[in-house]
Amino acid sequence: ATAAKITGAANVVTDPDGQTRIVVGSHDASLHCLDAATGALLWRYEADSYINGAPAVVGDRVVLGSCDASVHILSAVDGELLHELDTGSYVPGSPALDADTLWVGNYDGTLTAASLETGETRWRFEAGTPFFTSPAIDPTRVLAATEAGTLHCLARDTGEALWTFSTGAQVHASPT
């Protein structure tokens, strides 16, 4: 049996009735949605492998990466799978989101931008070494650090490399 270890942080989402919910992934391959006031399980979504990073939340969407090499885009209301994005390798970190785009790195060193509404890939950037952390976004750029210690700055809309910086050591924290 797989231990139900939690390695990523929980996140908060508000349902349409204004009630606060807590979402958290686990090594039981599930995302659990709990009522924040009572701790009661409201719904559970099962991926095909571990969920290591924290789920990301925007509007009525919960987005999570999994060791099943996919990003799962769920309804925050009932946990229904809306879209699934195959990243090609397991996703150790959390996706970054805005109103219509998600950005996520994988173990093979690919950073992907995709539509939050359809799950379709917009662009991919190949770093060649694993992304263990979550990307940071601003209005024009994406910053993402690799396990090998390289910080990449990319054009947010196209994925074009703008610059890189070598930290001299592994990076295990997300840029901000």
Tell me the layout of helices and strands.
Layout: E1 11-14, E2 20-25, E3 30-35, E4 41-46, E5 56-58, E6 61-65, E7 70-75, E8 81-86, E9 96-97, E10 101-105, E11 110-115, E12 121-126, E13 136-137, E14 141-145, E15 150-155, E16 161-166
Antiparallel strand pairs: 1-2, 2-3, 3-4, 5-6, 6-7, 7-8, 9-10, 10-11, 11-12, 13-14, 14-15, 15-16
Strand content: over 45%
Morphology? globular
The strand line-up of the biggest sheet is 1-2-3-4
What is the rounded distance between the termini? 37 Å
- What's the story with the biggest beta sheet? 4 strands, antiparallel
Q: State the share of residues found in helices, binned by percent.
A: under 10%
Helix-strand sequence: EEEEEEEEEEEEEEEE
Radius of gyration: 16 Å
Whole-number mean pLDDT: 92
Number of helices: 0
Keywords for this structure?
4-stranded antiparallel sheet, 176 residues, mainly beta, globular, 0% helix
Outline the structure in words.
This protein has 176 residues and is mostly beta strands. Helices cover 0% and strands 45% of the residues. Strands 1-2-3-4 form a four-stranded antiparallel β-sheet, with no helix packed on it. The chain is globular, with a radius of gyration of 16 Å. The mean pLDDT is 92.
